[in-house]
């Protein structure tokens, strides 16, 4: 096992070499153009750090197609300068037209939040617990009584996606963008690990676009 683990990083480098050669074979100027011209993705993906949900892979996208930000349990906190700076940069100057907040089934962050909510008062004694406090508070507003574990997790995942979409829509970058006529839309998606499919829960557009 230790030998397999020690080779993991080297395997990635070797895989990268094969991938780069394949890309060049199909488009000899791809990397040259990528290095020469500024990025112009149309989508910002805000997702979970879970290794089973790689944005580019599950959407069959190429480098330059998706601007990404990930964290534990796909959160968007108003106090998180990291996420807010990514959103701000993506909207302007990058110019994305769609912000997608992506949760996923069998989410470890959702499972941890459910467990913490059941155990009583939260003692944010480590970075992970502190990060999950808003999600734990959200879990406590949901009626999960009597649900099987998988259904409870699914309910939390969906509620979390809807809450984070709301947080994004209330964020300074989106409020400012909408106020100045930028019609960037905000989507809430759930990725199903068991099927590899994405399902849209909600899409929000500038208020005037709904008139």
TrEMBL record:
Binding-site residues for Zn(2+), renumbered to this chain: 48, 50, 104, 107
Cofactor requirement: Zn(2+)
InterPro entries attached to this UniProt entry: Carbonic_anhydrase, Carbonic_anhydrase_CS, Carbonic_anhydrase_sf
Top-level EC class as recorded in UniProt: lyase
Molecular function, one GO term: zinc ion binding
Function (record text): Reversible hydration of carbon dioxide.
Family, per entry: Belongs to the beta-class carbonic anhydrase family.
Name listed for the protein in its UniProt record: Carbonic anhydrase
Organism: Suillus discolor
């Amino acid at each position: 096992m230790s030998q397999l683990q020690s080779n993991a990083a080297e395997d990635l480098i070797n895989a990268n070499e094969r991938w780069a050669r394949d890309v060049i074979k199909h488009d000899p100027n791809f990397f040259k153009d990528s290095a020469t011209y500024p990025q112009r993705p149309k989508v910002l993906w805000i997702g979970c750090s879970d290794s089973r949900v790689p944005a580019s892979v599950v959407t069959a996208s190429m480098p330059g197609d998706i601007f990404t930000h990930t964290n534990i349990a796909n959160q968007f906190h108003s106090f998180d300068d990291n996420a807010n700076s990514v959103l701000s940069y993506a909207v302007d100057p990058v110019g994305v037209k769609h912000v997608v907040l992506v949760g996923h089934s069998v989410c470890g962050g959702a499972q941890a939040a459910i467990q913490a909510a059941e155990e009583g008062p939260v003692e944010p004694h480590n970075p992970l617990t502190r990060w999950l406090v808003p999600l734990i508070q959200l879990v406590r507003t949901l009626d999960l009584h009597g649900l099987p574990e998988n259904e409870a997790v699914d309910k939390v995942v969906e509620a979390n996606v809807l809450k984070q979409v709301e947080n994004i829509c209330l964020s300074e970058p989106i409020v400012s963008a909408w106020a100045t006529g930028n019609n960037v839309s905000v989507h809430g998606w759930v990725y199903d690990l068991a099927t590899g499919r994405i399902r849209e829960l909600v899409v929000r557009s500038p208020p005037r676009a709904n008139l």
